[in-house]
């Protein structure tokens, strides 16, 4: 007797397990003690000290960053959503050319694939925590990040912001049969 192929189990359409089991995590992995003491410069991605929080999360990512007095993060954008919590400091974030002031205790939301940068306007280092759905998008093969001055010329990013239009790389479509298509043309 020939067994019929179930497309949900063959990866064509997502499916859910009939039984969900808890994730077993070693007790020592449930706490990351003071990651602020472990921040570092990583060279390419950031021009400021940062550190991923090392917890066994599967679908979202947490990182902490330090912005020195008068400093800023690079102008960049990514497909993941981001929530930023200001641990300490005063400054502003530019999102798609618009300024949003912040101080200790504030939260900000950065929508997917919007150009943004964070700036320290205070007289001491500023610290923030970024919470993103980057890990989930990584698993799906959809996480993209673009840095102005690294991946594209700064002038190109500034033109895109001024035009109030998004680049073709901002759009993507997921189709179970054909995979991922980037650009507005893939949406048709």
Describe, in plain words, how this protein is organized in 3D:
The structure is a single chain. This protein has 188 residues and is mainly beta. The chain has two helices and twelve strands, in the order βββββββββαβαββ. The chain has helices at residues 134-140, 154-163, and strands at 50-52, 61-67, 76-78, 82-88, 90-95, 98-103, 107-110, 116-120, 126-132, 145-147, 172-175, 179-182. The strands form four sheets. It has a five-stranded antiparallel beta sheet with strand order 1-2-9-4-7, with no helix packed on it. Strands 6-5-8 form a three-stranded antiparallel beta sheet, with no helix packed on it. A two-stranded antiparallel sheet has the order 3-10. A hairpin with a 3-residue loop joins strand 11 and strand 12. The radius of gyration is 20 Å and the shape is flat.
Summarize the main sheet: 5 strands, antiparallel
Overall body shape: flat
Structural class: mainly beta
Our estimate of the beta-strand percent is 25-35%
What descriptors fit this protein?
188 residues, mainly beta, Jelly Rolls, five-stranded antiparallel β-sheet, three-stranded antiparallel β-sheet, 2 helices, 9% helix
Summarize the structure.
It contains two helices and twelve strands; from the N terminus they run βββββββββαβαββ. With 188 residues, the protein is mainly beta. It has a domain of 130 residues: Jelly Rolls, CATH 2.60.120.
Topology, element by element:
Layout: E1 50-52, E2 61-67, E3 76-78, E4 82-88, E5 90-95, E6 98-103, E7 107-110, E8 116-120, E9 126-132, H1 134-140, E10 145-147, H2 154-163, E11 172-175, E12 179-182
Antiparallel strand pairs: 1-2, 2-9, 3-10, 4-7, 4-9, 5-6, 5-8, 11-12
């Amino acid at each position: 007797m020939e067994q019929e192929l179930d497309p949900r189990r063959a990866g064509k359409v997502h499916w859910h397990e009939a039984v969900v089991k808890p994730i077993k995590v070693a007790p020592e992995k449930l706490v990351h003690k003071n990651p602020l003491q472990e921040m570092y410069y990583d060279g390419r991605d950031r021009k400021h000290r940062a550190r991923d929080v090392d917890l066994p999360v599967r679908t979202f990512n947490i990182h902490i960053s330090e912005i020195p007095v008068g400093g800023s993060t690079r102008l960049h954008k990514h497909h993941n959503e981001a929530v930023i919590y200001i641990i300490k400091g005063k400054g502003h974030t530019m999102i798609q050319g618009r300024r949003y002031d912040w101080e200790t205790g504030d939260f900000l939301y950065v929508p997917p694939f919007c150009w943004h940068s964070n700036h320290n306007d205070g007289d001491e280092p500023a610290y923030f925590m970024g919470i993103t759905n980057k890990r989930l998008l990584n698993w799906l093969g959809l996480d993209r990040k673009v840095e102005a001055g690294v991946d594209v010329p700064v002038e190109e990013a500034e033109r895109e912001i001024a035009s109030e239009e998004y680049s073709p790389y901002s759009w993507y479509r997921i189709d179970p049969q054909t995979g991922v298509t980037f650009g507005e043309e893939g949406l048709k």
